[in-house]
Amino acid sequence: MCGIVGYVGSQDSLGVLLGGLKRQEYRGYDSAGVAVLSNEGELVMAKKAGKLQMLMDNLTAHPLASGHTGIGHTRWATHGAPIDVNAHPHLADDGRLALIHNGIVENFYEIKAELTARGHEFVSETDTEVAAVLLADNYAETGDLRTAFARTVNRLEGAFTLLAMHANEPHLIVAARHNSPLVIGFGDGENFLGSDVAAFVEFTHRAAAVGQNQIVAITPDSVSVTTFAGEPVVPEEFDIEWDASASEKGGWPSFMAKEISENPDAVANTIRGRIHDGMVVVPEIDAFGPDFLSGVSRIILLACGTASYAGLVGSYAIEKWAGIPVDVQLSHEFRYRDPVITPSTLVISISQSGETMDTLMAVRYASERGAKTISICNTQGATIPRESDAVVYTHAGPEVAVASTKAFVAQITALYLIGLHIARVRDTVPEALLQHSAQELSDLPAKLAEVLSVGDEIRTLAKWMSDSQAVLFLGRNVGFPIALEGALKLKELAYIHAEGFAAGELKHGPIALIDHGQPVFVIVPSPRNSAEMHSKVISNIQEIRARGARVIAIAEAGDAAVLPFADEVIRIPLAGPLFEPILAVVPLQIFAMELADAKGLDVDQPRNLAKSVTVE
Ligand code: F6R
Q1: pLDDT of residue 1
Q2: What's the whole-model pTM score?
Q3: Is 114 exposed, middle or buried (CB count within 10 Å of its CB: 0-12, 13-18, 19+)?
Q4: Could you tell me if the CB of 86 is within 6 A of ligand 1?
């Protein structure tokens, strides 16, 4: 949530700021703004509620004076409605100081009361303006932006990334990070700041993540980092692997369409370098030596939303292969149940963004109590991997559409890699099974490419169903989390009431929902892999069909048993029992996208949602 960009250099800063905000649109926002220090030494600003385009139209109608230092922000409202006056930047010191903020300042009431008592006035309802005015107050006393900023951040509580600049110090931006993301981009005669590297990837591939409780000051020729206490820090640089075009649509009608088409690459890139001589070896875990895994007696998977469904799929595989009990817990519930954690607990967090606050807090909680932690993450330099013992990056590439698609299949792939790695190290399954499973993983990209060809069939189905009031999804075993994910995608994208159920649960209540014409997607397990499960799901289909349901079956090629009972059958290629769900989810992703499209909705940025949920 919230995108932040800062620039100092020789380019016209407005173009850099708007480009950086555009590439961070996926983070979710409801207003946008920029402030620039003009060549004449004036601080000029524009901000607007609504989409970035509204700010850009406003800037066309009322251009800002140009300048080479600037900050830009997309806001997702927390304190104060999403209206122009609450958008960032916020000004102070008679309009000579501008500040932007991502997060929540928890002690803002107290500070606001003090500042009000000293005669300061406020124009917005935001916690951010309080930080801006506090900074101005400290500046009035110190006359030095760096000193005033350090004093300010040490006073604030909560979660914040702050960027600020002052007209008196025209080639300087100061920034701080506390429980909220911030990265630096190193240029030549110019430097950048962003919520993530998308902010500046068009201009530089050299980046560094700012650590917790650190302050950064950038000028065109220097970057300095210190702790909140003033100790110097040497930032750890990394190379950004993807380029700006990877975060652009590349001819697709939406980012979501592009990202669904990238499912095969997401899996191929996540496997790359992690299968050696037909066996899975995850170097990032191997580096810790065998002791890291030898004492593990329980695994907890922590995640939210789609990532938690990836966790559920992964839990079946890891438990089966590694022979270790695996629980999946929603990150936001985890801490509040006083979970039993010991040094033999391995916590694997799953997060596309690596910034989800609920998951970050859960990982911190587990790690403080002695658990070993592995992060599965898609975003380099994000906070959760930085705070985990080991990180297994999914290499799905940037996921811009707010609803997750390719990251989901990449997350399951990473969980399978970890499961097979643990099974090999602990010698829990025969080598032949390890090799066969590694081969199944390697075969997935080609099979996923085949599934993508069902697009036209599903488009027709989606158009036909665009008036549906509710859609149900059923699955059994690893098909169950896929039913949950299919339902979540439809809720998010098409705003249709949708529920996923374990097929066996049907007769314990949900079957009461079945009425004439009720559409139900059923994920049918392969009869080759389990005749028993297959016939149970066929019986479930018969039960709902008899009550008038309209059944859309997702079944493997050649499964003729579904034909008499299904109104529509969507075929997926043959795969092993644990690998079917990775194929079965793709038609559901396409269905939700097509149905949303048929309803004329914005599939990339559904209402009320943010890509990166950085508040609890
Ligand atoms: C749904 C979706 C969300 C995320 C969840 C966790 O399409 O994208 O449910 O999966 O908010 O986000 P990350 O993976 O960034 O921790």
Answers
A1: 64
A2: 0.80
A3: middle
A4: no
